[in-house]
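In response to reviewer comment 3 from the previous cycle, which asked for concrete evidence that the modeling workflow produces usable outputs, we include below a single protein chain processed end to end. The sequence was submitted unchanged, and the resulting structure tokens are shown without manual editing.
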Amino acid sequence: MGVVRTNFRHTELFMDHICDQVGTHCTAARLSFIGCEIGDAELHQIATATAKSAKQSSLTWLHLGSNQITDQGARHIATIIRSTKHSLLCLNLWANHISNEGTHHILSTILSEVCVLEELSLARNDIGDEGARHIATAILTNRFPLTSLSLWGNSISDIGAKYITQAIHSAETCPLKILDLGKNLIGVQGACCIAMLLESKKSSLISLSVTGNRMPDNISSLLSMALVCSQPMSVIAIEQLEEMRTETLQIQGPVYLQFATCCKWADVAKYVFSRLTCSFREGNGGER
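The workflow returned the following structure tokens.
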């Protein structure tokens, strides 16, 4: 089998059949159980089956989105990670019921094994700031090649944003390129931490989402521009330049000319970050 995919609601017979396939002769590269009402008990069956086929497993992609997995189920996810540590590249746990405790189980396992995981989605769970702290610890260790991380809709506040941005900044190397922090509780202080990370150019980020947080819209827009400014001019697409050029920032005079002609990129970046600084002061009631 190359792909096992279903979005049908599980039955006992259905689960027995799937787990038999996975446990006895599964060579599937991708397993998808989106919206199957899979809970902790069903996940335990899948984890047990995966462990049976660990030696011949070629599983690279596992999607368990929109199910009923809790922190107890996160322990079974840890079993799956151990069984597929040399092959699993993408793990999607979008829209479940995993908190900071479950996040700790998952990340502890990833760090204790030699994993090759590149993409992790915990979007629409409830990991909060403590879960963000566990993720920051994992980033600091730099023991797995994570390039894409989605934490959309997880009640992460300024505190959690600070954990993550400081970890990326402090890590000896951090391959993370895509970070989604949208639909959280991040305000001006968290946005400031993100801006400082981008200005330091200590990250490899090429995609950053912070929409739907508690920061003013102009700061969210400026952070998008700051992300572009944080990259070398040589890797910036013309489309990105055109998008920035049309932003409603009322760029005028010499700065606009420099931007329009793609000259003195450092000055353009300096301008954007100075606008961010002013916005942060305004957002904090004029305080520095």
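The longest strand covers residues 3-6. We consider this sufficient to address the reviewer's concern, and the full set will be provided in the supplementary archive.
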